[in-house]
From TrEMBL, chains A, B:
InterPro entries: Asp/Glu/hydantoin_racemase (IPR015942), Asp/Glu_race (IPR001920), Asp/Glu_racemase_AS_2 (IPR033134), Glu_race (IPR004391)
UniProt pathway: Cell wall biogenesis; peptidoglycan biosynthesis
Organism of provenance: Eremococcus coleocola ACS-139-V-Col8
Protein's name according to its UniProt entry: Glutamate racemase
Gene behind this protein: murI
Residues annotated for substrate binding in this entry: D10, S11, Y42, G43, N74, T75, T185, H186
């Protein structure tokens, strides 16, 4: 069991920021990543549809064999974490609880900002979880639909991007939040721009970093961690799948993870089932 | 089950820094704290003796009824966490794994310092856990036996304290660590002095903060969290026990937790069993 990889699912590339944290914090662990780029972005889809897609990806990874599942997608975790966790025998982790906990821990003025896709913000998941834990906190949420395309088109340093950032974040800055949760796995790529606009005194929470912290705690808790000695005997492997273009996914993954020789396998979706494409 | 308190055990007052984080991060949760001040400090005792004392305290809290146990004492966790966790049906959390994970996450130059009591440092628990997870990290450990008495005697701002701090920490500073784990729950009280000597660029890890983050994750994971609504219906309670002087314990707890009206019940140790003292 311990030797199995950790599974990561995401609507596309965004979850690679979470995987990157896993490579850093958990260097002995193998991973298997599936990005549903053919149907991304999820942020504008209905909850029912998102839930169906998350189940399809979960089933694909279960067949491959995983010891833990990370829903490395805020939109997907908001829609489906509870039911996937209730159904699977292995631990299932989403990005929203970890980000919410970090926000509660970090804020000193009890004013927290949340940014995410429209689906994540409409689900109200962050605010609900934060308020369940601490009803005193004020939560200010803002959907930032243009941030994902900006990141996917690598427009982070274009001058007009700073205007987009300022337009979205001005209400949160005016509200005086001292903590801002990057509630979408794409947003860490915009961290410098967001930090510049919000000012150095605002703490940015990267839900991906916090999620891997939780994964690490659960691996320890369930005695599922691979040790450095295990990794020396059998080096960890990292496998990438996408429902979209393998070449495009590989370009992103190579750049974001800094791994030039990474290979991505394509998958096909037939009915409700995701299959590995036999050859490319 | 959800309504039960979280149990905290410690050799004395030190674990109150962990409890304080719980009050901050988990304001809806009840707690029950037992400090073994009659037999503190543990840091200079044998592992077998520490293990026995931890079991006695665990049994005392189990009888009271708890939903989770926190060994809020590095020395105690190093000696007994694994066997207590293996024996209890409820989740058991120590302070060492959480601090180790935070160090791995924080360091950028792969040089980590650990300070703690002689028993914690001799157990090599931090270095072992860190190396299991990442064999590349260099770990520099230093026992600081005088820090606990300095804190318990409230000598933090005495001029000679800075000399003691400098004497202990010079080897770690010279080794160039960029991350220093406060591997004893008393040490956060010396944080300003330690930060001043190490310099602002060194990150100090408070194992207590990280531990409550893990507690929070496990409460979520096992669906054991009390919500703000639960807390409104039945406000959380906080109960304090000590094997030593209730009056002395109350003074410390009132000061450290900022709660002037806190009441502490005394316990007696008879044979291998800790009993609540009938009256005081």
């Amino acid at each position: 069991m311990k030797e199995l990889p950790i599974g990561f699912i995401d609507s596309g590339f965004g979850g690679l920021t979470v995987l990157k944290q896993s490579l850093k914090q958990l260097p002995n662990e193998s991973s298997i990543y599936l990005g549903d780029s053919a149907r991304a972005p999820y942020g504008v889809r209905s909850v029912d549809e998102i839930r169906r897609f998350i189940w399809q990806m979960t089933n694909f990874l279960r067949e491959k064999g995983i010891k833990m599942l990370v829903i490395a997608c805020n939109t997907g975790a908001a829609a489906a974490l509870d039911e996937i966790r209730a159904s699977l025998a292995i631990p299932v982790v989403g990005v929203i609880h970890a980000g919410s906990r970090a926000a509660i821990l970090t804020t000193e003025n009890n004013k927290v900002g949340i940014i995410g896709t429209p689906a994540t913000i409409n689900s109200d998941s962050y605010a609900r979880i934060i308020h369940e834990k601490n009803a005193q906190l004020q939560v200010f949420s803002k959907a930032c639909p243009d941030f994902v395309p900006i990141v996917e088109e690598n427009q982070m340093v274009q001058p007009e991007t700073m205007n987009t950032v300022a337009n979205y974040l001005a209400p949160l800055k005016n509200a005086g939040v001292d903590t801002l949760v990057l509630g979408c796995t794409h947003y860490p790529h915009l961290r410098p721009q967001i930090q510049e606009f919000m000012g150095p005194e605002v703490e940015l929470i990267d839900s991906g970093v916090e999620t891997i912290n939780e994964v690490s705690a659960l691996l320890d808790y369930f005695n599922l961690s691979r040790s450095a000695e295990d990794a020396q005997k059998m080096p960890p492997t990292h496998t990438y799948y996408t429902t979209g273009s393998g070449a495009k996914f590989a370009r992103f993954a190579q750049m974001w993870l800094g791994q030039p020789d990474l290979y991505v396998q394509e998958c096909k979706i037939k009915g409700e089932i995701i299959h590995e494409a036999s050859h490319r």
